[in-house]
Inverse folding.
């Protein structure tokens, strides 16, 4: 209702961005180098959610997946997120979980993973377009370079959202990197456990010397007749 809208847009302490024009844009960009090979980082990316660092992400659903003629893997996912606002404020302004459409492309030949996402909810108020790319470090194959860029565009009358959303993305960028490191560590632990289990299984299945052969090998040799003389 109008009272709720008045409260949300005029009483909440959003940064003063009234000087922005209609459809103004805010851009956030960052880069980070992971001390892990590209294969490991991209494998962890698909297992990133859920994690304790990004509890706002509620679900990820694969809508489509295919491999093109060049061998690149294309995936379309629907991501459900929840803005971390107090419950009373959520009920007052009617905010619901946000749906995000994500398209990704994995090129194993050039060792590149490119993800593009845009919000499907509230896009009549503002649009958040995000681009994240993971590429193998050209100078060190044991490292992966991540670049991230987000463009926040608000419609007329909603430009005060832009700074708030941009700051939110910036604060979440660090959490996202920590989450990926968390998943990578978990994968390394799982791999180590699996390798140990395989070694134990191989040892269990390997032929063991029989008891009779062990006893016969333990007996002293019987002397020949000539030795008894």
């Amino acid at each position: 209702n109008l009272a709720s809208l008045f409260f949300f847009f005029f009483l909440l302490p959003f940064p003063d961005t009234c000087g922005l024009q209609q459809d103004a844009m805010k851009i956030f960009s960052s880069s980070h180098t992971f001390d892990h090979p590209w294969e490991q980082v991209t494998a962890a990316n698909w297992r990133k959610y859920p994690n304790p660092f990004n509890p706002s992400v509620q679900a990820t659903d694969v809508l489509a997946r295919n491999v093109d003629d060049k061998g690149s893997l294309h995936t379309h996912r629907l991501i459900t997120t929840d803005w971390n606002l107090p419950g009373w404020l959520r009920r007052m302004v009617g905010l619901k979980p946000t749906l995000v459409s994500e398209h990704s492309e994995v090129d194993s030949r050039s060792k590149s993973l490119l993800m593009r996402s845009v919000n499907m909810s509230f896009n009549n108020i503002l649009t958040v377009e995000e681009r994240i790319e993971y590429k193998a470090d050209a100078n060190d194959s044991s490292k992966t370079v991540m670049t991230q860029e987000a463009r926040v565009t608000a419609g007329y009358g909603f430009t005060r959202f832009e700074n708030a959303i941009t700051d939110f993305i910036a604060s979440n960028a660090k959490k996202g990197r920590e989450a990926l490191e968390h998943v990578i560590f978990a994968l390394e632990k799982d791999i180590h456990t699996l390798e140990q289990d395989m070694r134990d299984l191989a040892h269990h299945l390997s032929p063991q010397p029989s008891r009779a052969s062990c006893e016969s090998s333990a007996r002293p040799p019987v002397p020949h007749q000539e030795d008894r003389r």
